[in-house]
Amino acid sequence: MTEILQRYFDAFNAGDTNGMLACLTDTVAHHVNEGQIRTGRAQFEAFCAHMSRCYSETLTDIVIFASPDGARGAAEYVVHGTYIATDSGLPEATGQSYCLPAGSFFTLENGLISRVTTYYNLSDWMRQVSP
Questions:
Q1: Which residues are CB-contacts of 14 (< 8 A; sequence separation ≥ 6)?
Q2: Which residues pair with 65 in a beta bridge?
Q3: Which of 17, 23, 49, 93 could form a disulfide with 8 if both were Cys (CB 3.0 to 4.6 A apart)?
């Protein structure tokens, strides 16, 4: 189980959306921090395209946890990013750097990720990118 999560994070750090998609079920539920639940690979792919347009991010210090039965997992990590294009409703992007602790929670089915829930401190991010 930890292997699929490691592949997911390796693909994220490589900017490989297709690699991330290969780790997901067709009906993946993506619970975005402070946002709506997106269902399915197509919505996950659209989210990744939006994020790639607005942010350049790398995850470090990744620690992956798994339940004994392999049905659920979690990861804690640090997001190192650059805000490269203004995201709707957020401060203007001018290439600001940020560094945030974050975490993700996962459900797995048949060896693939069927739920991704991500959390980070939006107030901290806003403080870091605001003038």
A1: none
A2: 74
A3: 23
**Which strands sit side by side in the sheet containing 37-39, from one edge to the other?**
37-39, 24-31, 112-120, 96-109, 72-83, 55-66
11 residue type, one letter: A
Q: CB–CB of 33/121 below 8 Å?
A: no
pLDDT of residue 131: 83
The pTM of the full predicted model, rounded to 2 decimals, is 0.95
Across the chain, how many H-helices and E-strands are there? 4, 6
Nearest to 104 by CA among 53, 48, 63: 63
Q: Tokens 């490589």, residue? A: 14
pLDDT tens string 14-59 = 999 999 999 999 999 999 998 889 999 999 999 999 999 999 999 9
Q: Of all residues in the chain, what percent carry a pLDDT higher than 70?
A: 100
Could you give the CA distance from residue 32 to residue 47 in angstroms, rounded to a whole number?
9
